[in-house]
Amino acid sequence: MKSRSFELPAEVGNKLVRQGADGVRWLNELAGFVGQLEHDWNIAVGAVFSGGSEALVAQATRADGSDAIIKFGIPGPTGFEQEVRTLVAADGRGYVRVLRHDAARRVMLQERLGPQLAQLHLPIRDQIEIICATLQRAWVAAPDDLPLLTGSQKARRLAVFIEATWKSLGQPCSERAVEQALVFAQARQRAFDPAASVLVHGDAHNQNTLQIIGADRTDCSGFKFVDPDGIRAEPALDLAVAMRDWSEELLAGDALALGRARCDFLSSLTGVAPEPIWQWGFMERMSTGLYLMQLGWHDMGRDMLKVADAWVR
C-alpha cells in the first residue's frame, strides 16, 4: 500500500483532535485505508480539497480516466450516513450522483462537478432562480423506509436552539424576535403533513450548489446540490435558506419590504405559498445568526439578527 500524508482542512483537523483517541487512530490509518480503497475500487486518489468540516474530500481518477470526488466521513456524529442515504435516494436528480459507497467504511465516490454557484459572482436574483430550479428537480417523494428527520422535528430543534442560545449569548437581539421565532416553530410543527412532504436538502445555499461540468453558468438546469442534511418536510423549508442569506442586500434598504419581496419572488418561482416560506425563513435567520455569533463570527451573525429585528417591527 502507498505511504503518504494528507494535508487536512483546518476544521477537519480540529474535529479529529476533539475526537481524541478515535480521531488520532483514524488519521494514523488514513494512508493505508486510502491505499486499500484504491485497490478495491480501481481508482487513484489525488489532492485533498480545502474547506469542509465533517469529511475529508479529495480528487479521484477512475480506471477509465474520468474524474471523480471521494469523500471520507470522519469519526463522530457528523451526519455522513444521512448524507449518503439522501444522495442514494435522490439518484442524481438535482443532487450529485453517488458512483460507489461503502456504509461500513464511511466513504463514497461521487461524480465530479464544477465550481460553486457562489464563485460565479452572479446577481443575487439569478442565484435564487438557479437554486429554485435545482430544488424543483430535487424535490421528490422520500422513500417510506428512509430514516429521516421530519419537518416537525426540525422546527422543534430550531425553537430549542434559538431560545437557549439567545439567553447564553446575552440576548443579542430583541425578545420579540425570539418570541416570533417560537410562534413560527409551533406553526410549522402543527403544519407537518407526511403526505405533503418531500425529500428536502435542508441547507440549499450557493456554496452547496455546484455547476455541472460543461453547463452554461446562466442555465438554471446546469447545477446540482452537494452536502444535503436530508429531511422529510414541506418544500418551504428549503426556500428558507434563500430568505436567510444575503443580509447586506436587505439591510441596504427597507429590510421588511425587501424581505417580503424576496419571499414573494421565491413563491412565484416555485408555486410554494409565501407564508410557510416566511416562517421557515425567519427561524433559519434567527438560528443561523445566533450560531454564527456562537462561533465568533459576530459581524455576520449580528447582520442576520438585525434583519430579523426589522422583520418584527
What does this structure look like?
The protein is of the alpha+beta class. The protein has two domains: 102 residues, Phosphorylase Kinase, domain 1 (2-Layer Sandwich), CATH 3.30.200; 195 residues, Aminoglycoside phosphotransferase (APH), C-terminal lobe (Aminoglycoside 3'-phosphotransferase, Chain: A, domain 2), CATH 3.90.1200.10. Helices cover 50% and strands 14% of the residues. It has eleven helices and ten strands. The protein has a five-stranded antiparallel sheet, with helices on both faces. A hairpin with a 4-residue loop joins strand 2 and strand 3. Helix 5 runs antiparallel to helix 6, helix 6 crosses helix 10 and helix 7 packs across helix 10. The protein is globular. The termini are far apart.
